[in-house]
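Re: your question from the hallway

Yes, I did run it. Sequences:
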Amino acid sequence: DVKVTQSSRYLVKRTGEKVFLECVQDMDHENMFWYRQDPGLGLRLIYFSYDVKMKEKGDIPEGYSVSREKKERFSLILESASTNQTSMYLCASKQVDEQYFGPGTRLTVT
Amino acid sequence: GENVEQHPSTLSVQEGDSAVIKCTYSDSASNYFPWYKQELGKRPQLIIDIRSNVGEKKDQRIAVTLNKTAKHFSLHITETQPEDSAVYFCAASRGGGGNKLTFGTGTQLKVEL
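Structure:
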């Protein structure tokens, strides 16, 4: 059974703070993804990675960066958090087609 | 890049009725079309998918149809039950490892007793 875990379910940060969201998968998947989910906007891709140390911008990369030093771990970094980054963040991984999602991190930036 | 549009944004049906959710895509090279269900407070999970070499696929009460010429695909749920209440997302991609999914904006389905 594929497991994708995220470091926190809920997170509250202040404007300007550096924020790290971590995602770990245990199925040796090569591809990992970070999305944000906002009401009425669906799932929007921030960044994805198809291999260790490789990364590609998604549809909304501004204000975010990522790190993939190990195959099982994909981190999303908010260099200087802003209130418009308050959202639900979902990580996912896949090998071929089916994507498996993590439980999500509800981030609030005040 | 790919653009996926999904309608309706909300759908309310009576228990036992059918529900249909429609999506259109823009990239003619897309060949993989999954549907995800997200229950309240939970993660999205794949419920059914279809590839471009078939026109229809069924799994018990759910079915998906694909019209490649018109670039649209639909999710059909028959004999709806309260546990079908959730947000449903369609998506499209070129398939295979290294390719990303583009999601629709979601449909909130409510099945009323």
